[in-house]
């Protein structure tokens, strides 16, 4: 009954609706049907597309603005995003101001490097003289790692790096016939250095106790790389024998190598287990390379790290140094003194005198010509000058003289770079001058280096009349502005030089040479001077044709004939 009553009331209410309300409701229905009838689906889609486009534009601008101001590499602060790509979980070092390098961080400096020097109590007393050439107390950071604690009655030198005693390695495997426990101990220096927890370290640099580092150049090299990436940086051996026996792909420890912080973190995690897998490897550097191979990080080669796996005289190697900053030298006890009539330490101090005046330019080769006299000049800044009685191509001059032998067999070849023979006939050799002094000139920091020839010796100098004008030259004065370390951040290019005041017919006992940056279109060529007489150009052309024929006939082997001698004969 209740249900029937309610239905009746609703029906009666509907029937009793006023005419005014009915007309309004009818007009609303008509209007609604008209709108629905005229709105198309295409119009609705266009409106939605416009709204979506506006939203995308606003979102894009917001993201661009956010990332342009952000110094974080992880999107939206994700702390685990990089782990899937092989990174260790460490905190990035970002600059809080100051000089900013190419990587976007505060420029790398010496305080960001922690050195790990492999040594022993038995050898340190003699070899520390090499380390103390470059170590600067309260500036450089690191430790020399010893096999045992020095005797208590021995005072540790203040000029030496502080020492650490390596951990016990008796539990590691090593075969007595191919290696020793010391190789394992030295390999663990990276791990033990990392575990010290020294703050603000970007790079761990390993070396031997007889390695000489040129730290300003080391900083310049490492500053080109992002220390927040996994890097393994160093150099190979100069000897093919050594590379074949050990590896072409590893950094040789005596020349030193650098490992970035994130790679050191990962290496420290896996090293001990890894060392037992490579217990058959001979040296610590080879063991390290094996473990880094498992991590998947290859060697990044830098030409300034020098293992010096050669015997004899290193002069040829240093006088034609590649276009790269000099970073390190090793095995200096096993080669002849770098300067005649000096001890090796005295020789290194002489080079370091030039290095301290202009680190980036040290040992860098520069080539120029004195066309008025048909002469060639090769300058290894801070070390030596070579004077040739003829026009010699730049390609020949940048090839090192073979003044040395291979490391293991004392053979004349092979090496990992091209060489040219140093003739025993003094009339087929250049006249060589060695660094004598370094001076700073004026407020613009122009540097003047002087190179002098040793006294005349009948068995060492040429008596040919063609050489007489050259023998009258007693010294070279080479001027140059200081080379900025940032220059190595550009594409490598050898600088140019010119013989100044070299007027024809005027012989001088002192030759002035000026080093400068090469101009945009400048080349170093025997035929690049417009005043060069046609006879000289023709002679140079003959030499190149002859040299090409010899190379083709010899299967691309270098001719042992002295090209300067041939040029002078034709001239």
* Fraction of residues in β-strands: 15-25%
Q: Runs with pLDDT <50, length 5+? A: 1-25, 27-39, 70-98, 530-571
Structural class: alpha/beta
**Strand line-up across the major sheet:** 11-12-13-17-18-19-21-20
Q: Look at the structure and give the mean pLDDT.
A: 81
Give the N-to-C terminal Cα separation: 136 Å
Based on CA atoms alone, the radius of gyration comes out at 36 Å
The outline comes out as globular
Number of strands: 21
Tell me the number of helical segments per DSSP (H or I, 4 or more residues long): 16
How would you characterize the largest beta sheet?
8 strands, mixed
In percent, how helical is the residue content?
25-40%
Characterization of the model:
The radius of gyration is 36 Å and the shape is globular. 33% of the residues lie in helices and 17% in strands. With 571 residues, it is of the alpha/beta class. The strands form five sheets. Strands 11-12-13-17-18-19-21-20 form an eight-stranded mixed β-sheet, covered by helices on one side. Strands 3-2-1-4-7-6-8 form a seven-stranded mixed β-sheet. Strands 5-10 form a two-stranded antiparallel ribbon. A hairpin with a 4-residue loop joins strand 17 and strand 18 (446-453). The model is unreliable at 1-25, 27-39, 70-98 and 530-571 (pLDDT under 50). Helix 9 (261-277) crosses helix 10.
């Amino acid at each position: 009954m209740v249900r029937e009553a309610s239905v009746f009331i609703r029906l009666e209410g509907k029937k009793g609706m006023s005419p005014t309300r009915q007309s309004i409701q009818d007009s609303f229905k008509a209007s609604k049907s008209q709108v629905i009838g005229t709105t198309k689906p295409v119009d609705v889609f266009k409106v939605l597309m416009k709204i979506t486009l506006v939203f995308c534009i606003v979102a894009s601008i917001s993201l661009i603005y956010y990332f342009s101001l952000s110094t974080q590499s992880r999107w939206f602060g994700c702390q685990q995003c990089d782990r899937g790509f092989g990174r260790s979980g460490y905190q990035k070092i970002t600059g809080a101001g100051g000089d900013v390098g190419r990587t976007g961080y505060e420029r790398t400096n010496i305080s960001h490097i922690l050195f790990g020097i492999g040594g022993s109590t038995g050898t340190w007393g003699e070899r520390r003289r090499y380390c103390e050439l470059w170590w600067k107390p309260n500036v450089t950071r690191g430790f020399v790692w010893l096999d045992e604690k020095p005797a208590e009655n021995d005072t540790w030198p203040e000029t030496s790096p502080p020492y650490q005693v390596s951990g016990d390695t008796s539990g590691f495997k090593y075969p007595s016939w191919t290696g020793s426990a010391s190789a394992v101990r030295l390999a663990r220096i990276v791990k033990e250095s990392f575990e010290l927890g020294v703050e603000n370290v970007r790079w761990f640099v390993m070396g031997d106790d007889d390695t000489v580092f040129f730290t300003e150049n080391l900083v310049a090299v490492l500053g080109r790389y992002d220390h927040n990436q996994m890097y393994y940086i160093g150099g190979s051996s100069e000897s093919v024998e050594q590379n074949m026996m050990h590896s072409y792909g590893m950094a040789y420890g005596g020349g030193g190598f650098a490992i970035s912080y994130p790679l050191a973190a990962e290496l420290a995690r896996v090293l001990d287990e890894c060392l037992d897998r490579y217990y058959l490897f001979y040296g610590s550097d080879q063991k390290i390379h094996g473990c880094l191979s498992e991590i998947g990080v290859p060697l990044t080669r830098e030409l300034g790290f020098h293992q010096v796996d050669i015997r004899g005289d290193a002069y040829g190697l240093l006088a034609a140094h590649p276009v790269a900053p000099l970073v390190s030298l090793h095995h200096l006890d096993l080669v002849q003194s770098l300067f005649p009539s000096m001890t090796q330490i005295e020789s290194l101090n002489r080079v370091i005198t030039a290095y301290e005046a202009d680190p980036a330019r040290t040992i860098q080769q520069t080539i120029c010509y004195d066309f008025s006299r048909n002469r060639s000049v090769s300058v290894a800044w801070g070390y030596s000058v070579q004077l040739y009685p003829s026009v010699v191509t730049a390609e020949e001059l940048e090839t090192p003289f073979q003044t040395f032998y291979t490391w293991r067999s004392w053979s004349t070849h092979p090496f990992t770079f091209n060489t040219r023979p140093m003739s025993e006939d003094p009339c087929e050799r250049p006249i060589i001058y060695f660094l004598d002094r370094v001076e700073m000139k004026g407020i613009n920091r122009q540097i003047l280096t002087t190179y002098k020839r040793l006294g005349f010796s009948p068995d060492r100098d040429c008596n040919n009349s063609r050489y007489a004008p050259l023998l009258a030259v007693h010294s070279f004065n080479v001027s140059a502005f200081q080379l900025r370390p940032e220059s190595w951040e550009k594409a490598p290019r050898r600088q140019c030089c010119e013989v100044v005041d070299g007027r024809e017919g005027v012989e001088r006992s002192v030759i002035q040479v000026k080093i400068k940056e090469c101009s945009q279109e400048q080349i170093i060529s025997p035929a690049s001077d417009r005043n060069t007489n046609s006879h000289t150009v023709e002679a140079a052309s003959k030499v190149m044709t002859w040299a090409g024929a010899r190379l083709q006939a010899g299967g691309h082997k270098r001719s042992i004939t002295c090209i300067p001698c041939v040029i002078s004969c034709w001239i």
